[in-house]
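FORM 12-B: Structure-to-Sequence Request
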């Protein structure tokens, strides 16, 4: 009887964000962990910290995973959708089953959906509910804002920007980059800079010259 009560209690426990995050890294993102060409980062800030992506995967794409477990509310989701859709190449919503009907009505068609399920022994699994596709409407200015000022300056210097531009405030540097660079090249520079940051990866920044 005690064993049965314990099992019932465990089954009734709401799955928390932390549980889902750990399982997602272990089961879905395991091929990326330790890959020298891929950065897997928790809490990547967008629009100067207006939102933070739960898990960002940076390789050939900038792919964000947003977790909404059964223990979470959807209160922040509309703002997150707006900000993520301005920046990310791909986005996946990892959602508890109780939220699925509500989120289907609000997230863009290009977002993927994975539904969290809990097995009989308490293990967390993921069901591919809706496939993802590429973001059709990235905002170049929002994307450029991912850069730190020294990174933006380095790119502009390699592009041969006038010295007067280099002395302008950070916001002006972002606008200039968004205007002069084609989106595909800007996306590539952003991914290179994110993967090369010393405090994240422990090595020197990548050279951007080969891609100019």
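FORM 12-B RESPONSE
SEQUENCE OUT:
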């Amino acid at each position: 009887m005690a064993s049965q009560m314990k099992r019932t209690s465990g089954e009734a426990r709401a799955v928390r964000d932390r549980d889902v995050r750990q399982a997602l890294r272990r089961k879905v993102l395991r091929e990326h962990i330790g890959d020298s060409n891929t950065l897997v980062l928790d809490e990547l800030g967008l629009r100067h910290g207006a939102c933070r992506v739960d898990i960002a995967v940076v390789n050939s794409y900038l792919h964000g995973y947003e977790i909404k477990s059964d223990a979470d509310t959807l209160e922040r989701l509309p703002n997150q959708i707006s900000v993520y859709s301005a920046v990310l190449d791909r986005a996946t919503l990892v959602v508890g089953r109780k939220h699925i009907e509500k989120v289907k009505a609000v997230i863009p068609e290009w977002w993927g959906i994975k539904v969290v399920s809990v097995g009989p022994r308490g293990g967390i699994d993921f069901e591919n509910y809706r496939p993802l596709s590429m973001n059709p409407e990235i905002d170049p200015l929002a994307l450029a804002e991912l850069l730190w000022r020294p990174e933006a300056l380095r790119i502009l210097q390699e592009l041969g920007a006038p010295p007067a531009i280099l002395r302008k405030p950070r916001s002006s540097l972002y606008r200039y980059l968004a205007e002069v660079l084609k989106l595909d090249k800007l996306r590539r520079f952003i991914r290179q800079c994110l993967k090369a940051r010393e405090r994240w990866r422990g090595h020197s920044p990548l050279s951007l010259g080969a891609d100019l």
